[in-house]
């Protein structure tokens, strides 16, 4: 009897304890701040529900206008840009030019004109596009149906023999497709299709690509490989597909992204491939996903792998540091810009039901955007430019630079182009009207 009574008392104690614990849990949950259940219908609704603090729109628009104006201001009479300068007058700037970055500048100027209607940006993009087509686009290996963007010693200002980098034609196609949407007469569709044919000619059966073509050797060459070229190629082909909806462009782009998915699956650290993220946005927009739901899932999963790798590898600067928001430990600006381009594209198609992941991506984007805004030159003859690395205001004012790396005060067209492209993507995604972006221009 005594043992039974003890057992009964013990059982009652356990039951009472469970009831008390449940009451406490319910009470605490009831007093937690209200939070709506995800997913939201779109990223803007997500931000509103999650109370994510965004970059100030006026600060952003000023930066966009300054950068867009600066790119136009450094256009030369022959259609090239002032490629590189250094704010440190004690540094000798080596001559050189990169036609891939020239194409990237055209792409950014087209984005800027599309956003603002800026006439000077449009005229600058036209002029740069004409230089690209007349000076660099030529037949490949005697094949008249193939056109490529050649790296030529007279343009590069070095003694290297002529060669074709796949990336040059990739980004040349991106630039000229962007320009043709604004000015149909600037380049013929036939030229763009022949550039697309060259990219297809450089693609292997597994979806990968030869990176270079040497006219004086054996033609296609893969002794050096860039894992960024497949993403660039896919983006160019998809932009061509929107102008010329032939299935071969879409299928080749899909093969390129599928190749990247296969070689990256299961890896922890992968390339910060913003081009692939941007290409995936267009691929998902143009692919018939009703009949290819598994393909859609693969594309999105690959994008999530790239995004996670970017975020896991990002630098961790304190909030009081001038470098807070920079995504690489070296304090450079452009790696942050390119990662933002990719992450912003990914936000247009990755599922919003993974609340923690989306919030982390948004925080990374906002911090990175603030870092770039902080790094932009605000006044003086180079207002609107972006230097290779962040420079404190005291050094900018004195002109005395204390960093050991003399390239930190360097200004190059791609530093500006990538920051401008990222800022415009940010504005379009979070602030622009759903019908057509609108932003008052300074011009």
Cα Rg: 26 Å
Helices and strands, in order, run as: HHHEHHEEHEHHEEHHHHHHHEH
> Structural class of the helix and strand makeup?
alpha+beta
Strand content: 5-15%
Number of H- or I-type helical stretches: 16
Main β-sheet description? 5 strands, antiparallel
Mean pLDDT: 88
Main sheet strand line-up? 2-3-4-5-6
Helical content band: 55-70%
- Give unreliable regions as ranges: 1-7, 19-39, 434-443
Overall outline: globular
Structure characteristics:
single chain, 443 residues, alpha+beta, 5-stranded antiparallel beta sheet, two-stranded antiparallel sheet
Structural summary, described in words:
With 443 residues, the protein is of the alpha+beta class. The strands form two sheets. A five-stranded antiparallel β-sheet has the order 2-3-4-5-6. Strands 1-7 form a two-stranded antiparallel ribbon. A hairpin with a 2-residue loop joins strand 2 and strand 3. The chain is globular and about 55 Å long. The N terminus and C terminus are likely disordered.
Give the helices and strands, then pairings.
Blueprint: H1 2-31, H2 43-50, H3 57-73, E1 84-86, H4 99-116, H5 119-135, E2 137-140, E3 143-151, H6 153-156, E4 163-165, H7 166-182, H8 189-201, E5 212-214, E6 219-221, H9 229-243, H10 247-264, H11 274-286, H12 293-312, H13 334-346, H14 355-375, H15 393-398, E7 410-412, H16 413-430
Antiparallel strand pairs: 1-7, 2-3, 3-4, 4-5, 5-6
């Amino acid at each position: 009897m005594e043992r039974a009574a003890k057992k009964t008392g013990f059982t009652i104690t356990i039951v009472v304890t469970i009831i008390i614990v449940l009451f406490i849990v319910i009470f605490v949950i009831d007093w937690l701040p209200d939070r709506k259940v995800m997913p939201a219908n779109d990223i803007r609704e997500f931000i509103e529900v999650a109370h994510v603090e965004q970059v100030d729109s006026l600060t952003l628009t000023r930066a966009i206008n300054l950068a867009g104006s600066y790119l136009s201001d450094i256009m030369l009479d022959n259609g090239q840009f002032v490629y590189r300068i250094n704010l440190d007058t004690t540094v000798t700037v080596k001559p050189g030019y990169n036609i891939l970055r020239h194409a990237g500048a055209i792409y950014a100027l087209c984005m800027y004109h599309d956003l603002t209607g800026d006439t000077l940006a449009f005229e600058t993009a036209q002029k740069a596009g004409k230089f690209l087509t007349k000076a660099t686009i030529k037949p490949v290996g005697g094949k008249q149906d193939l056109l490529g963007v050649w790296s030529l010693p007279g343009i590069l200002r070095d003694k290297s023999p002529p060669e074709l980098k796949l990336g040059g034609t990739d980004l040349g196609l991106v630039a000229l497709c962007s320009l043709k949407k604004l000015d149909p007469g600037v380049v013929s569709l036939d030229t763009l299709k022949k550039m697309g044919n060259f990219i297809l000619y450089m693609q292997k059966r597994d979806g990968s690509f030869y990176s270079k073509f040497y006219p004086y050797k054996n033609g296609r060459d893969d002794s050096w490989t860039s894992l960024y070229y497949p993403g660039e190629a896919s983006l160019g082909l998809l932009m061509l597909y929107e102008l010329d909806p032939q299935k071969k462009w879409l299928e080749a782009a899909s093969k390129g992204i599928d190749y990247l998915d296969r070689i990256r699956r299961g890896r922890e650290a992968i390339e910060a491939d913003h081009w692939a993220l941007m290409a995936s946005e267009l691929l998902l927009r143009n692919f018939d996903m009703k009949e290819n739901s598994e393909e859609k899932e693969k594309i999105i999963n690959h994008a999530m792998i790239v995004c996670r790798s970017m975020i896991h590898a990002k630098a961790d600067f304190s909030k009081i540091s001038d470098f807070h928001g920079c995504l690489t430990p070296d304090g450079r600006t452009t790696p942050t810009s390119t990662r933002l381009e990719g992450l912003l594209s990914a936000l247009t198609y990755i599922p919003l039901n993974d609340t923690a992941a989306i919030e982390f991506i948004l925080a990374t984007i906002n911090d990175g955007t603030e870092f770039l805004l902080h790094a932009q030159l605000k006044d003086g003859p180079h207002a609107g430019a972006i230097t290779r690395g962040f420079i404190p205001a005291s050094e900018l004012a004195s002109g005395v630079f204390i960093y050991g790396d003399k390239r930190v005060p360097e200004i190059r067209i791609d530093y500006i182009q990538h920051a401008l492209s990222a800022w415009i993507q940010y504005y379009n995604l979070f602030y622009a009207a759903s019908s057509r972006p609108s932003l008052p221009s300074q011009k």
